Amino acid sequence: MAGQGESPAVARRRVRLALRRARDAKGLSQGAVAAHMQWSISKVQRIESGDNAISATDLRALLSLYDVADPEEIDQLLEEARISRRQRWWTNPEYREHLTQAMMQLIQFEAEAVEIRSYQPVLVPGMFQTPAYAQFLLGAPVFELTDVQQKVRLDVRMRRRQQVIESGDGPQFYLVLDESVLKRVIGGLQVTADQFDLLADLAQRPGIRIRIVEYTEGAVLGSGGPFTLLDLGEDGFDGAVLYRESFTTDLIDHDPKQVRFHRTVFETLWAQALNEEKSIRSIAAAAAQLRTRHDRF
Predict the structure, then answer these.
(1) What CATH number does residue 250 fall under?
(2) Domain C-terminal end among 50, 65, 84
């Protein structure tokens, strides 16, 4: 699944952070940089936000403006800029055309993350899903996915689990699920029971910590929708990224303010939730109840 070398998304993040630090050290505003370079301010903002990869010519010009003269630093940033423009990284063309840009970046950041924090208020998240649970969701009419798109996305979910959870050297993963996840039957009683059995098993693996937040807790904070925070191990909140998704859209957000806000939300929910031991018992109990219901028919 993973390609050789560093991912474009991670390389682009390092370039944008280096440029922002250099601009701050020089005491220049984004507007001042835009005026000096004769660019639109939106171009400067897109480069620093990571929305746009930067060309070697533009990078050299900015480094000159910021008085960055160390040859090794310049060469390193030029190499990272080159990597950031590379489109073919980890997967086959037939996969790429069926994945969003944000999902492609998410996969790259997952490969580099040292910690992942995720909150899911409605469903078991993708990489924790069984094939049957995932297939039912992907086949929902609301998503309007073709058979090929469903197959690709299912395969990607399973491969992401292998890379992040089952590899043995993946990131520390903190997952908070709303209690409603355990009350929702997806694909039938048997499918959901099997899903909860897998979830309880994964929750007992080293590096995986899962907590359930009950209905009586976190009702306000939990209403904002699912999100995932990926800590890349450097630069504090500047070194973390936020992933959010809805029915038809998803996005990667680099804004430190948004990262900080969602981290606060997550930590509050984590503190309100049942501890890991009680959460595993709740998940196992939900699976047992579903099997009892299934056996009655």
Answers:
(1) 3.30.870
(2) 84
pTM given for the model? 0.76
Q: What is the pLDDT of residues 12-39, one digit of tens each?
A: 878 888 898 899 999 999 999 999 999 9
Structural domains in the chain (count): 2
Q: Which of 84, 111, 130 is the last residue of a domain?
A: 84
DSSP string for the chain: ---SS--HHHHHHHHHHHHHHHHHHHT--HHHHHHHHT--HHHHHHHHHTSS---HHHHHHHHHHTT---HHHHHHHHHHHHHHT----SS-HHHHTTS-HHHHHHHHHHHH-SEEEEEESSS--GGG--HHHHHHHHT-GGG---HHHHHHHHHHHHHHHHHHTSSSS--EEEEEEEGGGGG---S-HHHHHHHHHHHHHHTTSTTEEEEEE-TTS-TTGGGG--EEEEE-SSSGGGGEEEEEE-SS-EEEE--HHHHHHHHHHHHHHHHHS--HHHHHHHHHHHHHHHHHHHHT-
User: Domain span at residue 126?
Assistant: 93-295
**What's the pLDDT tens digit per position in 155-204?**
989 988 988 898 777 889 999 999 999 999 999 999 999 999 999 999 99
pLDDT digits over 66-103, tens only?
A: 999 999 999 999 888 887 766 544 556 667 778 888 88
